[in-house]
DNA sequence: TTGATACTGAAGTCAAAACTTCAGCAAGGA
DNA sequence: TCCTTGCTGAAGTTTTGACTTCAGTATCAA
C-alpha cells in the first residue's frame, strides 16, 4: 500500500531511497553542476536528471537556478538538518528505553 | 536503471525509503513486538511484515529472534550509527566547501 | 490427539516510480 | 540570420518492489 508520505523527514527518506539520487547528491558534493554535467556520469538522460532534481529540490536537499540556458544545481547543506533530527530523536528514545530496561533487570 | 545498492548506508536508505518500514520502526520504538502485533497496526498481512523485517534485519536496524512459535522483534539502536556517519561526512564536506567559497568571494 | 495459533515460503498481482523518446523552445555563438 | 546547445514537457514503456493469497510447518494448549 505505502501510504502517502507526509512529513518533511518522510519526503527526504523517500528521496534518498533511490540510488541514482544518492549518486547525484554525491556528484554535487564536489561542487555545482549543470543538468547535463550530471546526466553524463549518472548515465541517464537529461530528462531523468530533471525529474530527480525536482524530487530533491522539493524536499530541500538541492537548489537550482536557471542562468541563461543552463540550470546550475547545488546542494543545500541545511537540507540534512531534518534527517539529523530524525536520527537524534529515535536514538535518544531507543537508548533511554534500553537503559530503563537494564535498570529493571538490575533490580534485586 | 537504479543499480544494485552496495554500501551499508545505501541499504539503510533503501530500507527507510519505504513509509511502512518507517512506521514499523516507530512501532518498535515503544518496545519489542511479535510479527502479528506489528501487522495489526500497520494494516498489512503478517507475510508483508515478514518481508519488511527481512529488509530491516539485513541492514542492521532490527533484530529478531524466534522463541517457540513467536518471533520477537526489536530495534538495534547501533543501526543508526551508519546513517549518522553518512550525514556527518556530507555535512562537514559541504559546509567546508561553502566556507572556502565564501573566503574566495571575500578576496579583494 | 486434536485444534488453534504464529509464522514461513512460493508464487503471483498490481501500482508507483524510474526511465525513455520525441517534439518543442530559448539562449548563445558563428 | 542560422545552427547548435541545453533544457523542458508530455506521453509512453519498463522495472521495481510492496502486497496478497494460499498452502505448508512447528508450537502450544486442551
From TrEMBL, chains A, B:
Transmembrane segments: none
GO terms of molecular function: DNA-binding transcription factor activity
Pfam (any one): HTH_20
Protein name: Transcriptional regulator
NCBIfam families, per database record: HTH_metalloreg
Domain HTH arsR-type: 1-97
Organism: Allosphingosinicella deserti
InterPro entries, A to Z: ArsR-like_HTH, HTH_ArsR_DNA-bd_dom, WH-like_DNA-bd_sf, WH_DNA-bd_sf
Top-level taxonomy: Bacteria, Pseudomonadati, Pseudomonadota, Alphaproteobacteria, Sphingomonadales
